[in-house]
Amino acid sequence: MTKHVTIVEDDPDVRSLLTRSLGADGYQVTALENGDGIDAMIAAGHVDLVILDIGLPDVDGLTITQQIRRNSDVAIIIVSGRGDLADRVVGLEIGADDYITKPFEPREILARVRSVLRRDARARCGTPALSEHHVCYEFDDWVLDATTHTLSDSAGRPVVLTSGEYRMLEALVTRANRVLSRDQLMDACYGNNAPAFDRSIDVCVGRLRRKLNDDARNPRIIRTVRNGGYIFATRVTRI
Ligand code: CA
Q1: Residue 90 class from Cβ within 10 Å (0-12 exposed, 13-18 middle, 19+ buried)?
Q2: Contact assessment for residue 61 and residue 54, using Cβ atoms and an 8 Å cutoff
Q3: In the chain, which end has fewer C-beta atoms inside a 10 angstrom radius, N or C?
């Protein structure tokens, strides 16, 4: 799913540079001149990352960061002027995930955005103490933890999977964008204990689609391939 980045920046040139660069890189972008209403936006909708200028005319970016952190752990990158070391330190202390200094190159901000979003997804993946050995896959708004066998949604909430559903999802995720026949899936899910009931794969796919909010009539994530089987048709990133 497209990640939504909200920019708070009073300088129209910087605002439009950020909007254009992030838009061209495939992000959905909302640009604001000030922090009015940002809390409600984060609470109501789907904001994955906030890029926040520190130097804003009324309420400054550090105050807004504090405000956001009272209710939300959304990713935040603060933008500061070159000399404002103290502001950057304070920003990180009060909960910003990263900072960038002006003037910046668009590709620098894109690299920061990607890295912060990746860390954000990783943070949702299992116990941090085990993270080195953890294998997690991110796709759309989901994280599948292959170590703890859990699936979490964009807010980090676990979605309960049966062991059959987990094995099926793991088989699909680790072989994304390849057609898998029912036999291959049967093997991956059940090994030698395949049930005689040959519709069990389709039933399991149906249940997974429901859990992933994938429309059964027009599935986007687990697509049916006519006479072939199934394909996991979304980008999977190992995180
Ligand atoms: Ca400014």
Answers
A1: middle
A2: yes
A3: N
Token pair for residue 237?
């990133």
Distance, in Å, from the CA atom of 103 to the CA atom of 106, rounded to the nearest integer, reads 10
| 141: exposed, middle or buried (Cβ count in 10 Å: 0-12, 13-18, 19+) | middle
Distance between CA atoms of residues 85 and 101, nearest Å? 10
* 199 Cα to the center of ligand 1, angstroms: 60
Cβ–Cβ under 8 Å, residues 205 and 172 = no
- CA–CA separation, 46 vs 112, rounded Å? 20
| 141: amino acid identity, one letter | D
The answer for residues whose C-beta is within 8 angstroms of residue 210's C-beta and 6 or more apart is 216
Q: How many CB atoms lie within 10 A of CB 170?
A: 19
CA–centroid distance, residue 36 to ligand 1 (Å): 15
Domains annotated on the chain, with CATH? 4-125 (3.40.50.2300), 128-238 (1.10.10.10)
How far apart, in Å, do the first and last CA atoms of the chain sit? 16
> Ligand 1: distance of its center to the CA of 54 in Å?
7
In this predicted model, what pLDDT tens digit does every residue of 215-227 receive, in sequence order?
989 999 999 998 8
What is the whole-number distance in angstroms between the Cα of residue 33 and the centre of ligand 1? 9
pLDDT band at 45 (very low <50, low <70, confident <90, very high): confident
Task: Work out the pLDDT band at 1, boundaries 50, 70, 90.
Answer: low
Ligand 1 centroid distance, CA of 71 (Å): 24
**157: which residues sit within 8 A by CB, 6+ positions away?**
none
Nearest-5° Cα angle at 176, 175 to 177:
120
